[in-house]
Design a protein that fits this description.
With 341 residues, the chain is α/β, with parallel strands linked by helices. It has two domains: 198 residues, Rossmann fold; 92 residues, N-(1-d-carboxylethyl)-l-norvaline Dehydrogenase, domain 2 (Orthogonal Bundle). 51% of the residues lie in helices and 12% in strands. The chain contains 18 helices and eight strands. The chain has an eight-stranded mixed β-sheet. Helix 5 links the parallel strand 1 and strand 2. The longest helix has 22 residues. The radius of gyration is 20 Å and the shape is globular. The N and C termini lie far apart (52 Å). The structure holds acetoacetyl-coenzyme A.
Length: 341
C-alpha cells in the first residue's frame, strides 16, 4: 500500500485514484487522527503575514501564533485591526482553558506568550518585508486579490510563499498577475470557520505550484493542529463544492414549501449527525458569503466546468440579503440572534 507521503509526491489526480481502494481509505482515516507535522518542513517558515483581520484572518493569525510562528496581522484600517484583536482575545480565552495547563503556565501567561508573537500593520509593503509566508484572507473579489498579490510580489522576499484562503475562487487566476517564479510558490490554504475550532484545512495545488510548497504548507498547518487535505484548483475545492450545493438545495426546499427551516435543520442534525443544520450553517457562514461563492461560479458554469443548476440564485436568499438579514453577524438571518449581539 502506498504511504500518504508517496501519494503526495505524485500528481494529486493519480493519488486520488490510488486513494479509492478501501485499504487506502482506511489508512487515510488513521492518518487524519494522528496528523503529525514534518518539523524540517514546518521550520522553513518562521514569520507569517496575514492579510485581512476579519473572522477568518484573525482566526488564522491566532492559530499561527499559538503554534509558535511570528505573525503580522494586516488590514486597511485601525478599526479593522482592533476588531481582529478583539476576536483573538475572546477566542484565546476559550482556548487557554485547555492549553494552559499542558504548557504548565497560567492561562494569562499562556495568552500573553501567544499575543507577544502577534503584531499589526496597515502598511502592506512593510508587513511582508520579513515574511516567509503570506496568507491572504480578504474579500472574495478576484480583481482585489489579484491586485494585492501583484503589489506584494514586488515587495516580498523572492522565497516568500504566497497563499490565498479563498473559499471558491481559482487559485491560478488569483496568482495570474504575479511573476512566473512566484507562481511556483503560490497555493491555496483554505481554513474553515471557526478557524480555532475546525481541524480541516484544504491545501490547494494550482497547476504551477511546486509540490515542495504543498509539502511545506501541509507541515505548517499540521503544526497549527490541523489535519490538512490535498486538493486540486477546481471550483469550491472539496468542501464548498459539496457544501454549497447542499445549502442551496436546502434553501430551494424551503422556497418550495416542503418543510420549515427548523424541521430541515432538525432532520440534518438528528438524522445525519451534522453539528448544525443547513440554515444554522448558512447563518453562521453568512448569506452574503454563500451567495458570493455561488455568483463567483457563474463563469465556471458558462465554461461547462460546473453544473449550471448549482449557480442558480435563490430569490429568497437575494431578498434576505437586500434586507440585511445576513445571518449571525447582522443579528438576523433564517433565525434571530438580536439578543446575542
Ligand atoms: N474559538 C476557540 N474555540 C472555539 C470557538 C472559537 N471561536 N468556537 C468553538 N470553539 C470550541 C469550543 O471552545 C469547544 O471546545 P471544547 O469542546 O474543547 O470545549 C468546541 O469548539 C465546541 O464549541 P461549543 O461547545 O461552544 O459549541 P458547539 O459544540 O455548538 O460547537 C461549532 C460550535 C464548533 C461551531 C459547531 O457547531 C460546528 O462544528 N458547526 C459547524 C461548523 C462548520 O461546518 N464550519 C465550516 C463552515 S464552511 C467554511 O468555513 C468554508 C467556507 O469557505 C464557507
Amino acid at each position: 500500500m502506498l504511504s500518504r507521503v508517496a501519494l503526495r509526491s505524485r500528481p494529486v489526480a493519480q493519488a486520488a485514484l490510488a486513494r479509492t481502494t478501501p485499504a487506502t481509505i482506511m489508512s487515510s482515516r488513521r492518518m487524519y487522527a494522528t496528523s503529525k507535522p514534518d518539523d524540517a518542513k514546518a521550520d522553513k517558515v518562521k514569520s507569517i503575514t496575514v492579510f485581512g483581520a476579519g473572522l477568518m484572518g484573525s482566526g488564522i493569525v491566532q492559530v499561527a501564533a499559538t503554534s509558535g510562528y511570528k505573525v503580522v496581522m494586516t488590514d486597511v484600517t485601525e478599526k479593522a485591526l482592533e476588531n481582529g484583536m478583539n476576536i483573538i482575545h475572546k477566542s484565546l480565552a476559550r482556548v487557554a482553558k485547555k492549553m494552559a495547563p499542558k504548557a504548565e503556565k497560567s492561562e494569562e501567561d499562556w495568552k500573553q506568550q501567544v499575543l507577544e508573537r502577534i503584531t499589526t500593520s496597515q502598511d502592506p509593503a512593510e508587513a511582508v518585508q520579513n515574511a516567509d509566508l503570506v496568507i491572504e484572507a480578504i474579500i472574495e473579489n478576484l480583481k482585489i486579490k489579484q491586485d494585492l498579490f501583484a503589489f506584494l510580489d514586488s515587495k516580498a522576499n523572492k522565497d516568500c510563499i504566497f497563499a490565498s484562503n479563498t473559499s471558491a475562487l481559482s487559485v491560478a487566476e488569483i496568482s495570474s498577475k504575479c511573476s512566473e517564479d512566484r507562481r511556483t510558490r503560490f497555493a491555496g490554504v483554505h481554513f474553515m470557520q471557526p478557524v480555532p475550532a475546525m481541524r480541516l484545512v484544504e491545501i490547494i495545488k494550482a497547476p504551477k505550484t511546486d509540490p515542495e510548497i504543498i509539502e511545506i504548507l501541509l507541515a505548517i498547518t499540521a503544526r497549527m493542529g490541523k489535519s490538512p487535505v490535498n486538493c486540486l484548483d477546481t471550483p469550491g475545492f472539496i468542501v464548498n463544492r459539496l457544501l454549497i450545493p447542499y445549502l442551496m438545495e436546502s434553501v430551494r426546499m424551503l422556497e418550495r414549501g416542503e418543510a420549515t427551516a427548523e424541521d430541515i435543520d432538525q432532520a440534518m442534525e438528528l438524522g445525519t449527525g451534522h453539528p448544525m443544520g443547513p440554515f444554522k450553517l448558512l447563518d453562521f457562514i453568512g448569506l452574503d458569503t454563500a451567495s458570493h461563492i455561488v455568483s463567483g461560479w457563474q463563469d465556471k458554469a458558462d465554461q461547462g466546468l460546473i453544473d449550471k443548476k448549482l449557480v442558480e440564485p435563490s430569490p429568497l436568499m437575494q431578498k434576505m440579503i437586500e434586507e440585511g438579514r445576513l445571518g449571525r453577524k447582522s443579528g438576523r438571518g433564517f433565525y434571530d440572534y438580536s439578543s446575542k449581539l
